[in-house]
Write a structure and sequence with these properties.
alpha/beta
Length: 257
């Protein structure tokens, strides 16, 4: 018998979270965490198993908040768990997902929302024509190396960008996300970054506040509901103020001005 060809791996869009609206007018693509190097495919159960994942919690929150506005929220299913160096496979999968959102729903704005390595993928793929905004939670970023090109930021021009990072994150360095935000702010004024005091990578300690912040950002960038005062102030403040904005305890109990 001849040797069977290895099946080609393809990315996918998971089932929409919550009831999918009849008329979709905005899309959030959720980019889960990954690993630096891996040839393995993510488990089909990995998304469902991560009940405490901040990006999963965000997806549920956004699906409820945006239902009347026509928001569709989909998790992205990667081909591989690993970023894998210059191949940047998670970026390719995020870009494919944006193409797929356009194919399904037409010319609607897309927000890429990712955590960890998924946050890095969201930032890289933010230059896709359909993407108007990026939300990166505790993004994994490589250590700065004079021999390597810095993380790109020019693709973020014209997009609104929010980065959220716990100050006690021991898995992804919050200082690296600050430095990236500072470079991005030089080419794009609509970049802000919030620091979650004493929280770690999973952003569990202030989970409610983080989800409220994500909702506030997404509802404005996709549907024009208006930023709350802290987010508006962070966008307008010059660096470093708008890039080290503390996330106040209780944020979300009164979002509007």
């Amino acid at each position: 018998m001849g040797q069977q060809a290895t099946p080609v791996r393809t990315a996918g869009l998971g089932k929409a979270i919550g009831p999918e609206p009849e008329a979709v007018s905005g899309v959030v693509l959720l980019l889960p965490d990954g690993t630096e190097v891996s040839e393995r495919r993510p488990s089909a159960l990995s998304w469902a198993a991560r009940a405490t994942s901040p990006v999963r919690g965000l997806g549920r929150r956004l699906a409820r908040a945006g239902r009347r506005d026509g928001l569709a929220v989909h998790p992205v299913q990667y081909r591989y768990r690993g970023w894998n160096g210059s191949e940047a496979r998670l970026v390719a999968d995020a870009s494919w997902a944006a193409d797929e959102a356009v194919r399904r729903y037409g010319d609607v704005p897309v927000c890429l929302a990712g955590v960890g390595m998924g946050g890095r993928a969201a930032l890289h793929a933010g230059g896709h024509d359909a993407v108007n905004s990026v939300l990166a939670l505790a993004p994994w970023l490589p250590e700065e190396d004079v021999a390597a090109a810095p993380e790109p930021v020019k693709q973020l021009v014209g997009r609104r960008v929010l980065i959220v990072h716990g100050t006690h994150d021991e898995r992804t360095d919050p200082e690296l996300s600050f430095r990236l935000a500072a470079r991005a702010k030089k080419v794009n004024r609509e970049v802000c970054r919030f620091e979650v005091h004493a929280d770690g990578h999973g952003l569990h300690q202030y989970r409610s506040e983080v989800l409220s912040l994500g909702e506030d950002f997404v509802m404005e960038v996709l549907f024009g509901r208006g930023f709350s005062r802290p987010v508006e102030d962070a966008m307008l403040a010059p660096p470093p103020l708008g890039l080290r904005m503390p996330l106040a305890a209780g944020f979300g109990k009164s979002l509007r001005r």
